Amino acid sequence: MSKPFSKTSFLFTPLLKLRNRHFFLLDSFFLLISPLLAMLLRLDSPRTVITNYGGPLVAYTLICLFLRQIIFYRHGLYRRYWRYASVDELGQIVAAVLLATAIITGALFVIILAVPGEGYVLPRSLALIDGLLVLMLVGGSRFSVRLVYGWRQTRPGQNAQRVIVMGAGDAGTMIVRELKGNPQLGLDVVAYLDDDAGKKGVQIMGVPVLGGRELIGEVADAYSVSQVIIAMPTAPGKTIRQIMQLCEQAGVSTRTIPGMYELLDGTVSVNQLRNVDIEDLLRRDAVHTDTAAVQQLLQGKQVLVTGAGGSIGSELCRQILRCHPAGLILLGHGENSIFTIYHELRQQLARGEGVAPRLIPVIADTRDAPRIDTIFRQHRPEIVFHAAAHKHVPMMEMNPTEAVTNNVLGTQNVLQAAQDVGVARFVMISTDKAVNPTSVMGVTKRTAELLVHEAAVRSRRPYATVRFGNVLGSRGSVVLTFKEQIARGGPVTVTDPEMTRFFMTIPEAVQLVLQASELGKGGEVFVLDMGRPIKIMDLARDLIELSGLEVGRDIDIVVTGRRPGEKLFEELFIPGESYERTAHEKVFVAENASKLVPAGLQQTIDALCAAAQRDDQQAIIRSFQQLVPEYTPSPGDGGQMATATTAPARNSQARPNEAYA
Prior knowledge:
Blueprint: H1 3-12, H2 20-43, H3 46-74, H4 87-114, H5 126-154, E1 161-166, H6 170-181, E2 187-193, E3 203-204, E4 207-208, H7 216-222, E5 227-230, H8 237-250, E6 253-256, H9 278-281, H10 291-298, E7 302-306, H11 311-321, E8 327-332, H12 335-350, E9 358-363, H13 369-379, E10 383-386, H14 393-398, H15 400-420, E11 425-429, H16 440-459, E12 463-467, E13 470-472, H17 478-487, E14 492-494, E15 500-501, E16 503-505, H18 506-519, E17 525-528, E18 534-535, H19 536-546, E19 557-559, E20 579-581, E21 587-590, H20 601-614, H21 617-627
Parallel strand pairs: 1-2, 1-5, 5-6, 7-8, 7-10, 8-9, 10-11, 11-12, 12-17, 13-16, 14-19
Antiparallel strand pairs: 3-4, 15-18, 17-21, 20-21
Helix pairs in contact: 2-3, 2-5, 3-4, 4-5, 7-8, 10-18, 11-18, 13-15, 15-16, 15-20, 17-19, 20-21
């Protein structure tokens, strides 16, 4: 600490040692002198005060002392820890002083009216002036402790790192408040920057707003700033990218808070600060979901999630739990993943209040029809989210039997069990790879969609599918693969320099899945607005640069050629589907999807499953092409699936749907 600060700290240290017994004595002293000070202010003549009002003033003072101390005690003014005084404590002081002043004023007017002669009464304004003085003295003595403590706590050390907070909104002020209250974090906020010109020149919590993002370099240089905290949870990825570039030019590091889709409870804290990740650069404009409608749908219901241990399934469970269902059944095949999400949710419930829903972990394989039927009859779910599936494209190309039995037969078993027990609402998680599929994974998911449509028609219940693209951070995601390659020192492998994909974060995808589930009437395909497609090559470059490395110097990018089943561009709508926007701006619906179910669906499904049981890949391909005529198998890898057909892969030069391009 600097020498001046040490002296000042020494002068104010006794204030921090004051306790409630000391405040009682201080209050007594203030209450004894405040009537005299009030009279002096009223008459401006000490001689007149003593000569004409001495006796009544002494009586008034003693009565007020006794009355005010009783009221102060009853209002808890001697049971507070004033070091942490806030608006609540200020309200208590004001209420106590106002009550005492009202009683004294009333009593004084009664005396004035009852006792004749002006020489024996006090001025009628005395009680008001006295009350104001008491409020200043009593409140000031207590809040001086709070101010000194706050001043000492928020003084950064000499080695504190100077930072700029980008964003002077709610999130930015929350971050500044916490940094000021925790100087041990070693971060000294010197300025806000905000693109809102109306905020320029103002101070928020003692920190000035100097201007917009274009001043990052200038402010960083003038204040010796070493870090910029981006506190803009609703800003799109384009804005984050521009700020990152300005920070890089200024030679300062960056940290950020999560995006709005991750801040489901709306709170922001310092422990959420993290390095800027690819999710931030690809973030889209914030979308407001109708959380009230979703909560009304799920509250008090028995909800079952298949694939509950997976990336999408586990996030579904987290968000469903916030809607207060009566019970949540976590169904999955992998015991470790179900164990992990089950205990995470239990800890989440332990921190909450009210009646907690039942969490029921269930280890089961959706391919085991009797087991699935037993689970549904035992727990009687009312709403089902079917997220269980094999999703890895190259792996399913090499293991088509597993893709069929898990993605098709498993979906059929879950649907049959749901209809048998009268499940009111069923939502299946699908994929954009089901559109004009060229992969085994894609065609099995398209077949599963057809099963859901048929069940919706047969049951006349809101059974629907939700189709979207890649999710960042999911198991098998290209992002995780790139990160592992970068950690090993490269190279980063890209299959085709022109390949693009739709991306969204897992929390964002799940919020929109829940929104779509509330909109479903039966037999629809809901398609999430994935924004613009992203080039995989650009994604690789961004991840390398976010790791503090340079493409070509530190890490190479190598083009390896497309793998079996891969498209150059993904699509979101099947030809013949009539789609339109729903009441939610980011959810499309194809209401005629159930009309595209081919005749004899069940017979072809039975033949497909029988072929899978025999591991007859030729028969599997024939069944797929009967079910999904637009399916064009990949030439394969080493003859794995190529023996069935030599047709070239579709979509070699296709473009994604115009609505998303």
